[in-house]
Amino acid sequence: MHRSTRNTDQLPGTNKRLHAQMFIWALAIGLSPAPITKLIAQSVDGAFDGVEAPAPAGDEVREAELDDLTAQIGAELRCPICRQQSVAESSSRIAREMQGVIREMLMDEKTPEEIEAYFVQSYGEWILLRPKVQGLNSILYVLPFLALILALVLIGAKIGFGGTTGIHESSLTVSAPDTGSTLSARDREWLDKARSES
Amino acid sequence: MLSALGYGSVLAALIAAGIMALAGYHAGLARRNIEFAATLTRRAAYFGFFAMTVGMLVMEIALLTHDFSVEYVARVGSHETPTYYTAISLWSSLDGSILFWGWILAGYGALFAFTRRSEIDAHQRVGGRVVAADGGLVPSLKTTPLVIAVIGTVGLFFFGLLAGPANPFGIVSPAPLNGPGPNPLLQNHPLMGLHPPMLYFGFVGMTVPFAFAIAGLLQGNIEARWIRDSRRWMVAAWAFLTMGIIGGGWWSYEVLGWGGAWAWDPVENASFLPWLTATAFLHSAMVQKRGGMLKTWNLSLMIGTFLLTLLGTFLTRSGVIDSVHAFTEGVIGPLFLGFMAIIALGSLTLIGWRSNRLYTAGQIESPVSRESAFILNNLLLVGFTFTVLLGTMFPLLIEAIRGDRISVGPPYFNMVASPIGLALLFLMGIGPALPWRRATSDHIKKSFRWPILLGVVTAIAAFLLGMRQLLPTITLAFAAFVLTTIVQEFAMGIKARRKLANRSFVGALLDLFSRNGHRYGGYIVHVGVVVIALAISVSWTWKTERQETLRAGERLAIEDYEVEFVEVWGIEEPQRFVIGATFETFRNGKPLGQEQPRLNIYHRDPSQQTIGTPAVRSSLSSDLYLTLMAIDQDNLEHATVRAIVNPGIVWLWIGGMIMGIGALIAIWPRGKIRVRAASDQLLADGGTYQLPSLDIDSSAKTENLERTSPSKTEKSIE
């Protein structure tokens, strides 16, 4: 609707669209939480997969795997007497005992889900450092995402991804303040001095 | 005696705050007797600071002389506590913290009044005559008393707490002979003297931008100078908060013994939330400075940041984090909540009332512009704030609704923080390289050719060198991208400066900092952020740990380190019993020296908990972190030690220092060289840059410049 006020040096429409697309793509790479998070989780999980370490033989492999799994499960469980430390991090006795339990259950071929369920049964849902995605908890996972998308859409409309935005000439210049003209030269000197000290 | 003196000075400060508020609002809003009121406002601000300084010194004297008749000393002092920890126990408990908070608040009020002293004089001189429209003063002159008035109003609340429910100067009679000493965790490491004051200076400093927001709304005029000044105060507070947060991470790393610096603990989150919104403001304020847009948004960020500092104090001090039901046990919690409600409602009302004056016809011209990058940065930062706030408050909500308790911990926060953090890192490479208004395709090609190339090359090189983890690879590529952009910016600035002023390379670089510190200081801050991002991703990905029980002479091997157990020992100190173990450490077979992780039991700690002191051997590539887990109490023959190798974690602190240096460059007073810098800037930026402040002062100065002779100009400029 403001097309008539456009500057002559404005980019042609196609070029502008191209830029907009580039920008969206660039942002999409940075912004898409779901795939990135998944990849990060995988990479973190994979961090101890022994790519660098020389492969130990037989039992040692099993031991290393057990250690890793224990640490992974322990990182998701709260140390019951600590403030905000996980079982894997805490040096408290109870956390070490829980690590032992995790390890034993793993040796009994229990799955991580079963192990977590066991601790939830003993301590309540409070023991999980990342709440399960169910019931009210879903808010925790859905709301930030929704808010982000909503804000993106609103801002996208505002900064002109829609393509209908023109320029307000008024936005290009800042109008000079209207107070200066009423000052006498002497007062102005005072003001300058005052302002330069702030 | 000390109690009476201390309490008296708190009351005096309370009266001073009342005068600051009354006289300040009068000077800013009324039409008569404004000169007198403005001077009174300033003097009240000085007096308030004096009174609070007396109050704080009295408390320090009481602490250091172990005057247990003073309630606070009886609660946190003990004869056995070393002098250093006695002195800093001022902030080891609630009442003392609020006293310290109040002192800093009064200090900010006095400092603000002092920096504007001649303006208040000018106010007195021109006062009645610079009137015209509404019989008052010119807008920016009204700002000063109003800002002090708002600081005074906030002071009324805090000094009121000190005079009433959080009075640290209560009298204990008969005075006990000794006290319990501070919380053991708070007297276990010297860093405790460093980061809490930083955090308080940051938290309380956010009051000044908030006061600017309210002052601007009250006078209905938010001009260019207003946003420039409030941003400057925000940068100062933000820098303190940044150092406080990083320092807190360092403390937690050196004390808590789990080998990490950040646990998304509610207390940590409480300091992080206002930091996020303040960071958002620092960027969006630039959009307003330039084109007048985003006024309401900026006001909301200033007010929101202040509210979040209050929320943080509320969350950490009311006990509500441990259980919703702890809330009603103290009186501080409800008072804070009420104060926050008043601030929030009052601010909203003011914004609604002034909404017609907050509208700017401006519009973002192109999605490919620096404005757009800033807006996206704000979106991400505020989204981040929202998510962290939700995660922190969620257990409380659930407990209030369903009655059962859940935990929201590091796995959740890391999951949401990594993508947002990476997106912000990415944007940091885009924003500075985009021009204001809109970018042409030529400009984009020119600006992003090298950054993208180097980013991609870095990623490929990392892959070829055997890096298979995604997180550090992306971080590394983004870091290369961002750093290239920053180097390009510096190169362009230096080139222009050398051409224009015929300066040497170093001279030109220094010129950039001294003439346009806002911008180039900001880039240095960005470098610090990149360093921190790398440190986080590297230490997170490659951290390894091993725990073993060793007998004398036995070794534990981890990565390129070896740890050999020597002996267990114990010493009795006045305030605690220390059990330690000595280990010889080696790296690649070469001896590094002895390390002594310890366990401490504080005599006067009622819970008799063991507080560990890990031994940390730092190097630029990795830290060896030893925690003593257990010892053989019967024969002292063996010890259980946990060894953690933390790669690159030192760079967290180094990055924090770089951020601090950048912020210092940005706020370093440059005052009078502004005008010349602005005209140089116009040339340096190839004309895409507008004179930064077309507000009254610089235009007036430019006129001055034209009027006076060249030699005199030089003199007045330098």
Describe this structure in words.
The complex is a heterodimer of chains A (198) and B (718). Chain A has 198 residues and is mostly helical. Chain A has a domain at 32-130: Helicase, Ruva Protein, domain 3. Chain A is 58% helix and 0% strand. Chain A has eight helices and no strands. Chain A starts with 12 loop residues before the first helix and ends with a helix. Mean pLDDT of chain A is 66; it is low at 1-18, 29-56 and 162-182. Chain B is α+β, with helices and mostly antiparallel strands. Chain B has four domains: 1-182, no CATH class; 183-362, no CATH class; 542-651, no CATH class; 670-718, no CATH class. In chain B, strands 2, 3, 4, 5, 6 and 7 form a six-stranded antiparallel beta sheet that branches. A four-stranded antiparallel beta sheet of chain B has the order 1-10-9-8. In chain B, strand 3 and strand 4 form a beta hairpin. Mean pLDDT of chain B is 85; it is low at 126-137 and 672-718. At the A-B interface, helix 1, helix 2, helix 6, helix 7 and helix 8 of A face helix 6, helix 10, helix 15, helix 16 and helix 18 of B.
Write a concise synopsis of the structure shown.
By secondary structure, chain A is mainly alpha-helical.
Descriptive keywords:
heterodimer, A: 198 residues, mainly alpha, Helicase, Ruva Protein, domain 3, B: 718 residues, alpha+beta, six-stranded antiparallel sheet, four-stranded antiparallel sheet, 10 strands, 63% helix, globular, disordered C terminus
